[in-house]
Amino acid sequence: MSKLYISMYHYTRDLQHSRYPRIRGLDISFFRQQVELMKNNFSIVTMEQVIDVVEGNSELPKKALLLTFDDGYIDNYDYAFPILEEFGLQGSFFIPGKTFTTYKLLDVNKIHYILASASLRELFADVKREMDYYRGIEFDYESTDELINKYAIANRFDTKETIFIKRMLQTVLPEKLRKIILNKLFKKYVDVTEEQLAFELYMTEDQIRTMKRHGMFIGIHGYEHYWLGNIEPQKMREDISLALDVLDEFVDRKRWVMNYPYGNYNQDVLEYISGQGARIGLTTKVGIAEIGKDRALELPRLDCNDFPPDRKCIK
């Protein structure tokens, strides 16, 4: 068995000078410190090395560490990528297909920027009010109190109110209603248009191409960034297939890597991606991966908060 530490990043940016400093990201000064500490204390490996180990062709060095970045944010290109190059390291970047093909905001990012702009108390009240208003008009779902009892459960990063807002607007409410409520809240709280923010937020195809040319690894993170295990199987297959199609230039269709949006998947997802050539699947389960013991399509990761320096760094 080979142990593998997998570090997970999302936003990496100059928070102090960003338009939305309340975004839960890793400030670039701490990212640099962290990468330097990692290089001095771990053997940082490439994704290609990990695939070879999974396929039984080699072994990992001791204290192997893999660096992964979710969601295709331009700040990964502007800030993280140059630092990785400076230290001679590879990062693995997982990019939802919709981000660079349409420049329309993913729902997950609308939620992030609403949370970064609004008072949590006011936003929590808004979401409950909208849910109560639309219930029974066109949409049917449990009472707000029942949903609060079921989903308003704090985790190690977010309050119970924040988790409730995220779950309602990510996956629990009907998709059409989620979009209606999100659009209302975005217009109320965020001071730029969706189009402006999308062009500021995501990497371009040329930037992805540049990273690939410089040795970075590019992987699949769905197309729409759905909770893949929560949608009907046909829609799941269509989403992953579309992601593979738009990222075809950047991935090996016979040996590609899946990173499940929100860490959400089920047996249907595992069977489908296995049949499409996926060799590795990355989850959000917290732990050190053990190649040969953990299933290759269900490898756990560690949050960037789990490494020094001790700073909050992820949504």
Describe the oligomeric state of these chains in a short phrase: single chain
Helix-strand category: alpha/beta
Secondary structure: helix percent: 40-55%
Relative strand content: 15-25%
Overall 3D shape:
globular
Spatial separation of the terminal alpha carbons: 32 Å
Total strand segments: 11
| Count of runs of 4 or more consecutive helical residues | 13
H/E series: EEEHEHEHEHHHHHHHHEHEHEEE
Spans of 5+ residues with little confidence (pLDDT < 50)?
none
The Rg value, from CA coordinates, equals: 19 Å
Give the biggest sheet. 9 strands, mixed
Task: Summarize the structure in words.
With 315 residues, this protein is of the alpha/beta class. It has helices spanning 28-41, 47-54, 74-87, 97-102, 107-117, 120-134, 144-151, 160-172, 175-189, 194-201, 205-213, 233-246, 267-275, and strands at 2-9, 12-13, 26-27, 43-44, 64-70, 92-95, 217-220, 256-259, 278-286, 289-291, 299-303. The strands form 2 sheets. Strands 1, 4, 5, 6, 7, 8, 9, 10 and 11 form a 9-stranded mixed β-sheet that branches. Strands 2-3 form a two-stranded parallel sheet. α2 (47-54) links the parallel β4 and β5. α5 (107-117) runs antiparallel to α8 and α6 packs parallel to α8 (160-172). The mean pLDDT is 95.
